[in-house]
Specification:
Elements: E1 3-11, E2 14-20, E3 28-30, E4 36-40, H1 43-52, E5 64-73, E6 86-89, E7 97-107, E8 117-123, H2 130-138, H3 144-153, H4 160-165, H5 170-177, H6 183-186, E9 188-194, H7 210-221, H8 227-244, H9 246-249, E10 251-253, E11 257-262, E12 267-272, E13 277-279, H10 302-318
Antiparallel strand pairs: 1-2, 3-4, 4-7, 5-7, 6-7, 8-9, 8-11, 10-13, 11-12
Bound molecules: adenosine-5'-triphosphate and magnesium ion (MG) (2 copies).
Residues 23, 255, 273, 275 line the site of one magnesium ion.
């Protein structure tokens, strides 16, 4: 689902509607200075940005400009109630409450573009943490709701036994869910695409085969042939930098995205969303990011996704 967030952003005296391709709408708002946006603070993500500002990956992530506390009334578009947020009674009224929320102040990556086309690709062969899978395995109850979601997408997905009991366990559902998109096979999936003038707000949840993904990417760069070699070059630079980055070597990068942005003149790609990027456990000093994931080895398949993105853009360029 593509969200067009209600706020406008100003950058270099331009005013433009800000585009958000994933996540809860209430997690983002306009920044206090032009060219910045605010994302609801998650301590894990803050820790990553602090490390990234001193890592060789810095040119490939939005600039982090610190934490900002913002007062908001409940009528505002603040939805969730995450950690780090305090609720206070407003002295003027019994019902109206002021919410103080902490936000990460980040560079707005759309700021340098004019009528940008934007694509969010979630990278990696799984989008849940090992700990989330382990938790789901603790008391695996049969879930009828998950069984029904499964059947809706693919009636042949449940096993004979699952059909008999009309239910699946949560860990089984989590693993299966990554196979309906290209996540499990290509190591990335398209989360959302927004073209310059409205268009193509499609749902990509079941865009799975290499052919389907190639078609989605092809439509994204249609009419902007200059963007393709720029994207290939940028992806190769990101890959080379990842391989040398101390941050990347020591973290499991899950649920993170590459944000592709182009307009008539320029094209860029940045790594975003580090809410599920965690330091590796002590007994595992590093992972290689391109090995097969087996439960417990913490491999995220991030480089599998980057390699496939490069291959697919190269196919598009050559055809
Ligand atoms: P989810 O976990 O569901 O993916 P989230 O709440 O963690 O969502 P992000 O994935 O960080 O949020 O961002 C959601 C969307 O907001 C991105 O797809 C992108 O369109 C936009 N966005 C995020 N950060 C930036 C940025 N620095 N500059 C411009 N756009 C951004
Ligand atoms: Mg995201
Ligand atoms: Mg996220």
């Amino acid at each position: 689902i593509v969200h067009w967030t209600p706020f406008f952003q100003t950058y270099k005296k331009q005013r433009y509607p800000w585009v958000q391709l994933a996540g809860h709408q209430g997690n983002f708002r306009a920044g206090p200075t032009p060219g910045t946006i605010l994302k609801k603070l998650c301590p894990q993500e803050e820790a990553c940005f602090r490390l990234l500002m001193n890592d060789i990956l810095r040119p490939y992530v939005p600039e982090f400009k610190g934490v900002l506390d913002v007062n908001d009334t409940e009528e505002g578009n603040v939805e969730s109630n995450e950690a780090g947020e305090t609720l206070q009674k407003d002295s003027n009224s019994d019902t109206k409450r002021t919410i103080v929320s902490s936000y990460l102040q980040l560079q707005d990556l759309l700021g340098d573009f004019e009528h940008p086309c934007v694509m969010d690709c979630k990278v990696g062969v799984r989008t849940y943490l090992e700990s989330e899978l382990a938790k789901a395995k603790e008391r695996p109850k049969l879930r009828k709701d998950m069984y029904e979601k499964m059947v809706q997408v693919d009636p042949s997905a449940p096993s004979a036994e699952e059909r008999r009991v009309q239910g699946v366990t949560k860990p089984r559902y989590m693993v299966w869910r990554e196979t309906i998109s290209s996540t499990a096979t290509l190591g990335f999936r398209v989360e959302g695409i927004k073209l310059a003038h409205g268009g193509s707000s499609k749902d990509f949840k079941t865009t799975r085969t290499r052919e389907q993904v190639t078609e989605a990417l092809r439509r994204f760069v249609e009419d902007y042939p200059h963007a393709v070699p720029k994207y290939i070059q940028r992806l190769k630079a990101i890959r080379a930098t990842l391989k040398a980055s101390p941050f990347f070597a020591s973290h499991e990068v899950v649920g993170s995205s590459l944000l592709f942005v182009h307009d008539a003149k320029n094209a860029g790609i940045w790594m975003i969303d580090f809410a599920k990027t965690l330091p590796l456990p002590q007994h595992l000093p590093r992972i290689c990011h391109d090995a097969e994931w087996k439960v417990g080895n913490h491999e995220d398949g991030y480089l599998i996704g980057v390699n496939n993105l490069i291959d697919i853009f190269q196919d598009i360029w050559n055809s």
